[in-house]
Hints:
Blueprint: H1 11-14, H2 19-39, E1 56-59, E2 71-77, E3 86-91, H3 93-101, E4 122-127, E5 131-133
Antiparallel strand pairs: 1-2, 1-5, 2-3, 3-4
Amino acid sequence: MTTTLGAGIDPAIADATDVAGLRALRSAIGTRLATIHREAGIDTTLPGVGITPGCRVRLTRISPVAAMNLTGTVQEAATGKKTYNRYDILLDESSTIALRADHRVENSRKISKPQDDAVRHLMPSVPIDCMLLADGDS
């Protein structure tokens, strides 16, 4: 027996074609799950949970390692190829400085070194699973 996406899923979701609406729904579901887990005493530091444009995030479980623990603000969803579940991240000033000083960036094809005069650096198309909410983070 072949199971299709629509089996057991609300038809409004299974047949949806509005990407922005589905991303908003995914975010709302993640936020609700985090609340339920927190109330049940389960770890809520799940990558990707509650990530929406405008929120502050910390990069984790990301390659190259030079990007690990950098913080920034989620921008609108990435555009172009391979952008499902990806957002552009505008690094904050301290993370931009740290990335610029990291010698490992020189050998990376995945990330670019910030310009010398850049205050904030844009990292394009970062996977949502590499982000943790960092609102209370310093």
